Amino acid sequence: MGCVFCNIASGEQKADIVYQDDKIVAFKDRAPKAPVHLLVIPRKHIRNLNALEESDAELMAHLMMSLPAIAKEQGLLDGFRTITNTGKGGGQEVYHMHFHILGGGKLHAM
Ligand code: 5GP
Ligand code: ZN
Fold first, then answer.
1. CB 3.0-4.6 Å disulfide test: which of 56, 84, 104, 105 passes with 36?
2. Residue nearest to atom 20 of ligand 1 (CA)
3. Tell me, what CATH number does 8's domain have?
4. Ligand 1, atom 17: nearest CA belongs to which residue?
């Protein structure tokens, strides 16, 4: 079975992409839960945090360190929320690791 986020990364499936480079892609969530709701994925298919390997460390650092600029570029100048759901217990629905960026309105305290 194909992976929807691999297909977005390859361009096979349409998405509203706001940033991409050779390692990561950021696009708008199709069902936004905040005025700004982005998903940031590695191009490499990694299921979730539980599936990380030591060799993914550099990729993960790049992804994490790219989040602030991606958020700022989308107008989130005073901050944003980052969420990643891992596995059934984390409520993960799409099994290609992704970081939600949420902001632009009042978020509930967690
Ligand atoms: P999670 O796996 O973190 O629980 O949630 C997956 C997220 O991906 C949801 O917020 C959902 O709206 C979003 N999503 C699922 N399929 C697509 C898609 O095909 N395109 C886009 N842009 N977002 C998607
Ligand atoms: Zn994938």
1. 104
2. 30
3. 3.30.428.10
4. 30
